[in-house]
Amino acid sequence: MTYAVDFTTVSTVGLESSPVTDALAGLRANEARYFKNKYDHVFTVEPADKAASIIDWVHGILADERGIVIASRPLEATEFEVEGIRMAYVFYESGLSINVMYTLADGGKRAVGFKLSDGMDIPSELSAFKFARQKSKLAGTIRGSYFVIKNAY
Fold first, then answer.
1. Rounded to whole angstroms, how far apart are CA atoms 13 and 131?
2. pLDDT tens for residues 4-32?
3. In angstroms, what CA-CA distances link 43 with 110, 131, 132?
4. DSSP letter string over the chain?
5. Which long-range contacts (CB under 8 A, 24 or more apart) does 1-5 make?
6. Distance CA 116, CA 123 (A)
7. Rama region for 63: left / alpha / beta (φ>0; ψ in -120 to 50; rest)
8. Residues 83-94: pLDDT tens digits?
9. How far is CA 119 from the centre of its chain?
10. pLDDT value at position 1?
11. Phi, psi of 82 (to 5 degrees)
């Protein structure tokens, strides 16, 4: 079932199995607030078993670009387009969030972003990345990193 993420009342729906449930819910709500404020887009997610094609696309980019295989189990995912940019998000049980920003026009920005929920350790598969800190009222301290996508997907 698709779930519209509410950033005014943070809910842990769909994320209950995570050891950092509240922080991951705050991170998800932080993303929902960003897209509502910037693009007037309602951020919706669906359970991982219903979003296999989105997860496969994200995992394919990670594997092809950097040889990264995420060890944690995906809980939820979403995909949408805003202003010519294809966005995909996967939220993992460990508290990790991965997003792909893929501009559809040739020569546009294309990148993969990683965000770690407050209280989670850096996964070993992402140990090569340096993470910057960002404060969020909804998510506490978010640590984030990214890499630029070089190929077409």
1. 27
2. 999 999 999 999 999 999 999 999 999 99
3. 20, 25, 24
4. --EEPPSSS---TT-TTSTTHHHHHHHHHHHHHHHHHHH----EEEEGGG-HHHHHHHHHHHHHHH-----SPEEEEEEEEETTEEEEEEEETTSEEEEEEEESSTT--EEEEEEE-TTPPPPGGGTTS--EEEEETTTEEEEEEEEE--S--
5. 1/46, 1/47, 2/44, 2/45, 2/46, 3/44, 3/45, 3/46, 3/76, 4/42, 4/43, 4/44, 5/29, 5/31, 5/32, 5/43, 5/44, 5/45
6. 9
7. alpha
8. 999 999 999 999
9. 17
10. 78
11. -135, 130
Structure tokens at 58: 């994200």
**In this structure, which amino acid lies at residue 127?**
S
- Joined together, the tokens standing for residue 47 give 């359970």
Residue 83 in tokens? 């202003």
Tokens, residue 63? 């594997």
